[in-house]
Amino acid sequence: MELFGIIAAITSAASWAFGTLMFDRLGKHVPPVGITFIKGSLSIVFMALLTFFCNGFASIGSIECLYLALSGIIGIAIGDTLFFKSLKDLGPKVQVLFFMLGQVVTMILSFVFLGEILSVKEYVGALILLVGVMVVIWEKQEGHPNKTRGIIYGLLSILCFSISSIIIKYAIADIDVVSATFYRMFFGTIGVLFVGVSSKKIRNWVAPLKDLKILGLFVLNVLVITFGGFLLSTVAIKYISVSLASVLSTTEPIFVLLFAFLINQDKATRRELLGAAITIFGLLIVILNG
């Protein structure tokens, strides 16, 4: 099942890459907290349908419920909102640089709290992979101001994501990943809903959805990140270590380059192609020694 977990982690990274590019577009019309709320609401509907047609909603104990609630609030309600704020300031290519640091943070936390240790070859492969990714995304992307605010939001969001990944590892030991993903999204979205109700801004958040193009883009993007991003990342964490799943998710910038070319016709530079080659080499080392 380890190979299944590895494939899930890489596919999840590709899904998040697509989602990052699309949310960069949507951020021009919807505020970051609004994106988190709309994304979460649509994700709940999609996951509820999937859960219903699978084995139904699994019962969860109070401890698992607490872990899933904390993971959802920290990783989705807070982490996603900070992610979209950072994305708005930095742009997709620059912003993912911070998420490479995030993988290191996750590896450290998984060692401290879960006792997970990779092999020497896997650490070497991870280092090569990170070098390749940094080569790809070191240059700034045109059209986005690289503000201190964006850097702070980026750093805070990766901390939220790392903590959330550690917490959910405790919750999914005896719960199927579909139900766990649904409950995590539900709790995270409820947290954002509370903010919206208390601030009376929900109407402003959903107003842009009157434009059918924006609504269609939201639905497509949420479908991709719900089943490709959230669900497969949970699958990866269930079947491989959090550390290894974190390392494999660093391939996201490579997919960002690919989708940027396919969707926006942004051609890759020699530097980006070199970084992609280094990243793939590091990835192969990790997979072959996993």
Summarize the SSE layout with pairings:
Blueprint: H1 2-26, H2 32-53, H3 62-90, H4 92-114, H5 120-137, H6 148-171, H7 177-199, H8 202-206, H9 212-239, H10 242-248, H11 252-264, H12 270-288
Helix pairs in contact: 1-9, 1-10, 1-11, 2-3, 2-7, 2-9, 3-6, 3-7, 4-5, 4-6, 4-10, 4-11, 5-12, 7-9
Please give a structural write-up.
By secondary structure, the chain is mainly alpha-helical. The protein has one domain. It has twelve helices and no strands. The chain has helices at 2-26, 32-53, 62-90, 92-114, 120-137, 148-171, 177-199, 202-206, 212-239, 242-248, 252-264, 270-288. Helix 4 runs antiparallel to helix 11 (252-264). The protein is globular and about 50 Å long. 53% of the residues are buried. The mean pLDDT is 81.
Summarize the structure.
By secondary structure, this protein is mainly α. Helix content is 81%, strand content 0%.
Question: What percent of the residues sit in helical stretches (DSSP H or I)?
Answer: over 70%
Distance from N terminus to C terminus (CA atoms, Å) equals: 12 Å
Instruction: Note poorly predicted spans.
Output: none
Provide the succession of SSEs: HHHHHHHHHHHH
Radius of gyration: 18 Å
Please tally the helical runs, counting DSSP H or I stretches of 4 or more residues.
Answer: 12
Task: Find the count of extended strands (DSSP E, 2+ residues).
Answer: 0
Q: Which whole number gives the mean pLDDT?
A: 81
Indicate how many domains the architecture comprises.
1
Biggest sheet, in brief?
Answer: none
Shape: globular
Kindly estimate the percentage of residues that lie in beta strands according to DSSP.
under 5%
Helix-strand makeup class: mainly alpha
